[in-house]
Amino acid sequence: MLRKLADRLGIVESYVDQSGGEVRHTSDLTRQRLLAAMGIDASTERRAARALRAHQQAARRRWIDPVRVVRQRRRSLARVTVRLPELHTETVHWTLRLRTEEGIESWWSGQMNGGSSRKEVLSLPVVPPLGYHELTVSFEGAGEHHTATQRLIVVPPQCTPPEARLHGRRGFGLTTNLYTVRSDTNWGAGDIGDMKAIAEWVGQHGGAFVGMNPLHALRNEGYDVSPYSPITRLFRNPLYLRVHDIPEFRYDAAVHDLVASPEFQQELSELRDAKMLDYARVMALRAPALESLHRTFLEREMSRNTPRAQAYVAYVKGEDPQLTGYATYMAIAEREGPDARLWSEDLRRADSAAVTDMRDQLAERVDYHRWLQFELDRQLGCAEADAVQAGLALGMYQDLAVGSAASGSDVWANPDLFLQGATVGAPPDMYSDEGQNWGLPAINPHVLRSTGYDYWVRLLRAGFRHTGALRIDHALGLFRMFWVPLGESAREGAYVRSFSEELFGILALESVRHNALVVGEDLGTVPPHVPAVLAKWGVLSSKVQVFERDFHTGRFRSANDYPRMALATVNTHDLPPLVGWAEARDIMLRSEVGDLADAGVAGAMRDSRKGDLDALISSLIEAGLLPYDAHQHLTSDALIAAVHAFIRRTPSALVGLSLDDLAHEAMPVNIPGVWQDRYPSWSRRMRDTLETIFALPRTAHSLGTEAEGRTATD
Questions:
Q1: For a Cys staple, 673 with which of 297, 432, 500, 646, CB 3.0–4.6 Å?
Q2: 92 lies in which domain range?
Q3: Which whole-number Å values give the CA distances from 632 to 395, 446, 449, 578, 584, in the listed order?
Q4: What's the CA gap between 340 and 329, in Å, rounded?
């Protein structure tokens, strides 16, 4: 009964690990703990049987599925499957009511024989358009009335294809960890102004996009600085605001005096020169300026109901209630502490009366945090428009993280959606023999579905806003997510199935509506059917050059072997830049922090990396991109240019070149599986400023066009 129940709720019995040769089975204890995380007691066979019966009975009481996602061109779209209640009468009258996204309503009715509960198929005489609709079914008979509503989501066959934005060409772009960027104009961390400067340079060299790390809101202090562990994925990090570009800056004399003060300039100089990013210190520097600018906004704009004030009101209306919920969380966190799980009991649920009272008490701070998001949205919109104006076919390429922090506003506002007893991660793989436990609470796929995928829709709309392409981090989670019982090693985890067809359908709908491409990060332990599903939905896969090798021979794949529907890159945020990879910097760092305590293992990994580098050089020699004696005489300049020339020869629709590689950075921004108390992941800054990097002749050469003898965009 335990295993039947676990299977019915999507807990996968076994999986083949990344080696392709070992099957890992889910233990009964793991099944029991993951079911408990879902709120189901399966601690004995009798209890498991009872839970299974309850689940089956609940399904039989659903007169219509709570949600249905169907492609617009499918014939089945007009067929509606319902369950007739048990009504002891000769005739049952039924009614279908369709309310489209635009608010247009239509009704159809008929009758059928009564009797026992059973499934029936009704017909819609019209084909609903693309979008999110409401379909209600009602039954009347024997003096009873039953009704149920379905969210009917009609989706396109595929996501926006590359041809829609690139017009048959291939596009290259620069990818960057924006927070690491050093410039003469930012306030100690890379910001939207730097993003615009990068886009202008990329446009001058024929590029198509600028890609960046997730810009989701973070706590910006202590260890809570990973862009892949945000407090919310619905809103963005004020760290990236360009303060000088806020319109109120022109009128705020107090801010001008603050910025001109010797104390401010001294602090600013130290932050600009720092080797590591001190998030809390950067935010402390800008906080007084931002607060003053918000007061100026209220005095100059809101009090006069100016066009900017009207734009703010419209933004809040469009983003509420989630925006005010997030802003309330931020205001309460300033008073009660950063972790919502540690607040007083009456504040731990966002819908409590105590939270409503607190929102009223902290109204000014709530409005401040809403205004920050409004200004972030405005600046990102300007950056996207400027990038397109600079000639970038895609403009900005953004990133959607895989989860949200347990202590943050997403979890606080959606306590039934996020599980407290299970976190997500990855099974043992090339990054870690123990696997990875990311510490992010798992999302219950059954609750997500029962709520009409509202949270998923909002995530996608936030991600697609002001972007020409969206990367879905750990896209394998759309198929299945690796859950780890709370407090356990990832070795004790198991995969839990997602409703993948429905998730992909909604992804395609939002992609088409925003006219943006989708890239799925499909690295790691990949089930055999994944590539075909990605291709069916028009999602570009991720191809990382250092991983693209023949399993049997160890040879790197030729450029022609890369698929068209892909983003080709040299590395990822979980790998060191190319120079650091060649020097095995990541292996040395893992040894230094104690992640590789066995000297023999570390030595073997360094030897293996040397073999990887030799194989890479050989492949570049064979491709005519390096001279025959490159094994003996090779500079970093030549290696970077040759590697970039190689991936730009691939037929892949998109090619991402790392700004870190162009700048010859060596240190990684992240060591997977190593907590920040041992290595300061997400805090390493670039050594040189953007102005210096772009002025160096080797930077343009590192794009790979000279080594390849081709134009910048093919």
A1: 432
A2: 73-155
A3: 41, 58, 58, 18, 18
A4: 8
Rounded mean pLDDT, 84-99: 93
Of residues 435 and 157, more confidently modeled: 157
Q: Note the pTM of the prediction, 2 decimals.
A: 0.94
The kind and range of the H/E element at 388 are helix 363-389
A 10 A CB-CB count for 325 gives: 23
- Res 707 pLDDT > 60: no
Whether residue 242 is contained in a domain is answered as no
Strand 566-569 vs strand 541-544: parallel, antiparallel, or unpaired?
Answer: parallel
Helix (H) or strand (E) holding 233: strand 232-236
CATH number at residue 101: 2.60.40.10
Could you report the per-residue pLDDT of 688-701, keeping only the tens digit for each? 999 999 999 999 99
Tokens 């893992």, located at residue: 590
Q: Is residue 508's pLDDT more than 70?
A: yes
Q: Work out the mean pLDDT of the chain and round it to a whole number.
A: 94
Query: What residue has token string 């599925």?
Result: 65
Cβ within 8 Å of residue 234, ≥6 positions away: 322, 326, 410, 458, 459, 462
Question: In the structure encoding, which two tokens stand for residue 432, read together?
Answer: 């870690």
In a domain, 149, yes or no: yes
In whole angstroms, give the CA distance from residue 108 to residue 98. Answer: 9
Show the tokens assigned to 609. 């990396």
| pLDDT value of residue 18 | 67
What's the one-letter identity of residue 651?
P
| 3-class DSSP assignment, residue 406 | coil
Q: Distance of alpha carbon 47 from its chain centroid, rounded?
A: 37
Q: How many domains does the chain have?
A: 1
Give the DSSP letter string of 667-706: S-S--TT--TTTS-TT-BPPSSBHHHHHHSHHHHHTTSHH
Going by pLDDT thresholds of 50, 70 and 90, the confidence category of residue 714 is very low
Which tokens hold the place of 158?
């595929």
- Helix and strand numbers, DSSP H then E, in the chain: 25, 23
- Dihedral pair phi/psi, residue 180, rounded to 5°: -80, -15
Enumerate residues 6+ apart whose C-beta is below 8 A from 553: none
Is the CB of residue 482 less than 8 Å from the CB of residue 346? Answer: no
Is there a cis peptide before residue 321, judged by omega within 30 degrees of 0? yes
Query: CA separation (Å) from 429 to 20, 226, 434, 557?
Result: 11, 21, 8, 21
Residue 520's pLDDT band (boundaries 50, 70, 90)? very high
Residue 220 and residue 227: Cα distance in Å, rounded? 10
* CA 651 to centroid of chain Cα atoms: 26
Backbone phi, psi, residue 282, to 5°: -65, -45
DSSP line for 485-546: ETTS-GGG-EEEE--HHHHHHHHHHHHHHHT-EEEE---SS--TTHHHHHHHTTPBEEEEGG
Residue pair 414/449 in contact by the 8 Å Cβ criterion? no
- Chain-centroid distance, C-alpha 45: 39
Nearest to 387 by CA among 702, 181, 688, 171: 171
Structural domain contains residue 128: yes
Q: What is the band of 595 on the pLDDT scale with cuts at 50, 70, 90?
A: confident
